[in-house]
Amino acid sequence: MVIAPKEKPIVENLNAYYLNISKLLEHYQGEIGAGCVYFKSSSAEGVVFFDHDDVLNGCIQDRKEKTTGEDAVERLMDDASDHNFTVAIYQIPPEDVYFWSSIPTAEIIYNDLSTEFTDLQGLLRKMTAEKLTGFIDVSIGDGSERGLIFISNGEIVGGSFSWGPGKPGNVRKDIATLVEKTKASGGLFQVSRIPLADKNRSTAEAPQATLATGVVKMLEEFLVIFETLFASQKMKASDFNSVIRKKFVEKAEHYAFLDPFAAEFEYADRKIKFSGKAGDKELAAGVISSIQELAHELGIEKQFKQHLSSWNGKHEKRLVKLDIRS
Fold first, then answer.
1. Closest C-alpha to 73, from 115, 25, 108, 8
2. Against a cut of 0.85, is the pTM above it?
3. Which of these, 14, 30, 83, 293, could form a disulfide with 87 (CB 3.0-4.6 Å)?
């Protein structure tokens, strides 16, 4: 089963036969920033998640097998017309898209639980108590209404609801609505766990280059979330690049690689260029502490922490290894 947002798509019923999927992705990366392309036919379905800069992950499932990652993305890019797919585009809040992009790796731990034997409120209590990182997929009544509840290390961090607007809202209120609808009309629940990154691979086994790339990518996502929040606040007389550059200058006494004159660290166009010798721990500590201070000074610390919930869930294991608190 391929999981896609429950809200109404911004575009739907496109025919893959007439589409250049690569160009379509490129267009919507610029148009909406973050989201997914959902493919469905009588024999297969698939999804590709993207943010402003990158294709993050993909999944395709046909009658024979389920494929995820780069292979899935390539198949959907190259062979979409072969399956006679209809295509829909969903917008996803930038702060949630990294959680969504982890969903293709999820493993089902409870399938087709019915309201005849359990209730959603009790199931939620059980999953939060068990510190689940994953999601609960809810089908209400005849399936015409649906919902997803995202959980990270036992904390509810978001959701997607068929009656929702497709942007951040009052998740607790939507979950309460979901609970009431299942009580009134019945429902089915599927619980899936998202494996932690590098779950079966120790640090010693991983090449240093791979670790460095992972940390840089993690920090790019962190900065993109902050930049998106900063832009949404429409702060007067504030240019994002100038604001973070000033903060990095202040922090350069403790983290020399942040000194703009050293030209070791640069963040531009939502990408990091790093050529310094600082280790992963120092790199992450310098960038994250700088942005945390900046969020506090700008009065958006609380909103920023909320927007980081899915990022924290995705990178929990790496953050623990680096002894970083975000």
1. 25
2. no
3. 14
Strand partners, 137: 148, 190
- Residue 217 has which token pair? 């990518």
Distance CA 49, CA 180 (A): 31
Asked if 264 and 257 touch (Cβ cutoff 8 Å), the reply is yes
Task: Tell me the Ramachandran region of residue 106: left when phi exceeds 0, alpha when psi lies from -120 to 50, beta otherwise.
Answer: beta
Beta bridge partners of 184: none
pLDDT in tens, 96-126: 888 898 899 899 999 989 888 889 999 999 9
CA 148 – CA 156 distance, rounded (Å): 11
The owner of tokens 């089963």 is 1
